[in-house]
Amino acid sequence: MLAGLLSRVLTNEGYDVECLDRADELPGAAKLATFNLVLSDIHLAGGTSGHDVLRRVREAMPHMPVILMTAYADIEGAMAAVSQGAYDYLPKPIEPSELKRMVGEAIARRALAIVVQAPSDPREVAAGAMQIVGAAPAMIDLYKTVAHVSPTTATVLIIGESGTGKELVARQIHAKSPRATRAFVPVNCAALPESILESELFGHERGAFTGASGQRRGVFEEASGGTLFLDEMGEITPKMQVQLLRVLQEGEIRRVGASETVKVDVRVVAATNRDLKSDVAAGRFREDLYFRLQVVTVRVPPLRERKQDIAILTRHFLSKHAVRLRRPVPNVAPEVLEALAAYNFPGNVRELSHIVERAILLAREGVITAADLPGELAKPWIEAAAHQAQSTLADDWPPLATLERRYIDRVLSRTGGNKTRAAEVLGIDRRTLNRMFARERVAAAIARGEPAPPDEDDDD
What we know:
Elements: H1 2-12, H2 29-32, E1 38-41, H3 50-60, E2 66-70, H4 75-83, E3 88-91, H5 96-111, H6 137-149, E4 156-159, H7 166-175, E5 184-188, H8 194-202, E6 203-204, E7 216-217, H9 219-222, E8 227-231, H10 238-250, E9 252-253, E10 262-263, E11 267-272, H11 276-281, H12 287-293, E12 296-299, H13 310-325, E13 331-332, H14 334-341, H15 348-362, E14 367-368, H16 375-396, H17 400-414, H18 419-426, H19 430-447
Parallel strand pairs: 1-2, 2-3, 4-11, 4-12, 5-8, 8-11, 13-14
Antiparallel strand pairs: 6-7, 9-10
Helix pairs in contact: 4-6, 13-15, 17-18
């Protein structure tokens, strides 16, 4: 079905399109050479996949552009495919305008013979590697940049506000690089004064300063063959800027108190929440160091620019924190996601993580409600509920059973009438909810002087 729709879109653009169902139906090199591009879904018929397509095309026509189509759950595989030579990938649902743009660009690049050799395959991500989570357009761009830059040795500068997940991006770059089996060493440059930071980075010799009772290797040596992550690079002093520039230029360090240099093989990934370009203009940061660091710049968007990811991130943190706290994953009332979506998150993804962790600890009966959120998020919802309750009670002082039914009706309204989902939010099982409705039918029939109706199995 998808193939037919995409075929019509591209045919209307003037392309000749041929559709296949399986990777093993791909033609040989002679026939394949008559095409300009291959577009493939990740999941194909007959147990084959887009990765099989990519491999077969690479073997027959190394410079043939291959574009993969993928759902959010397959982004990890798509990123790996880009590292293995795929031209690009399209996330589903596919926008026809983006499809036409990418196909046109790929064919034009091939026609102009602008061919970039595929980088070497990255090492497999170590088990338990941390995930970048999100499917917003800005995050898709980030995934693509990470996939392209990871297999290289290029220095990377990650920019973004505090709490956006810059270290997580750095770890992903390392995990997908040829250095993945070696050390990833993070250092917070803002947390240490200059004298201690110098020793931390470069090490020291015995007697170099008071308390230096022996030789000590710095993190540049500890990260040999791996990746050194320098967080908050914008906070280092001019003296340290000079020393770091020398390391990046010469590939060698000098321990504090030493007379000889030591060669180091380290990939540097730096991060900052400052505007280094403005700092350069103001004379606070060396221009030559800035240019050395920003060979490739990766921008991590703030959460307020990717609000469609809030629900995805909330589910991710629910699972993550529930396992760590040894608690079952709670259900989430609809107003919680509404409250989170309305919030601007000055602390970004880190703040959302803390909010979810707090809510898990405060949740009762296995359900997170607005009352379990911090005050600034919960206040509007609590006030609205209190006002509604006060108005209702002032009007008719209903019995508890009536209030219970009103609450159930409100939850059903929020879940679109889905009783299974409503039961989850209410913290009861579906059969209990059905029995409550059955009792109401019996009571209503008796009140009308009618026989009790037979039991019914309510469906959503």
